[in-house]
Amino acid sequence: MLSQTNQLRIAASLGLIGVILGALGAHGPVHDAVVANDHLDAWQKAVFYQFIHTLMLFLLARSGNRVGPYLFLLSGILLFSGSLYAWSYLNIGWLPHITPFGGICLMIGWLWLAVQPVVPHKMSLRS
Q1: For residue 64, what pLDDT is reported?
Q2: Where are the domains of the chain?
Q3: What's the longest Cα–Cα distance across the chain?
Q4: At residue 121, does pLDDT exceed 70?
Q5: Which of 27, 45, 66, 114 has the greatest number of beta carbons closer than 10 A?
């Protein structure tokens, strides 16, 4: 099972990677390649989705045993944002076909949370 410490480390690493990829997409040779491929909007979308879902990974890691939705959101980040990063930089035509699978993973993670919301251990939904 994925420990809380490892979940937090993964989320922190994804946050760091998001900052790095955001900077690379804004400056220098990576920016030039992404712009030359006319995919800057996809790169920026990948960074945005990575950050939004990384924040949710932190919340899930801090809330206790929420490994199921955590893994779906993590998979979604890797597939959705990862395929957009690779496509934007490498311009390989089949890479965008992976992106919807990442989107589906993200949706499943959010749906799981809608059905079974994140509630701190000592709180109850009943008043």
Answers
A1: 79
A2: 4-115
A3: 57
A4: no
A5: 66
Task: State pLDDT tens for residues 25-52.
Answer: 999 999 999 999 999 999 999 999 999 9
Q: CB within 8 A of 56, min separation 6: which ones?
A: 73, 109
Q: What is the pTM of this model?
A: 0.88
d(CA 50, CA 35): 20
Residues in the chain: 127
User: What angle separates helix 99-115 from helix 82-90, to the nearest 10 degrees?
Assistant: 160
* Residue written as token pair 């994804």: 14
In Å, how far are 23, 26, 106, 110, 125 from 20, measured between CA atoms?
A: 5, 10, 22, 26, 39
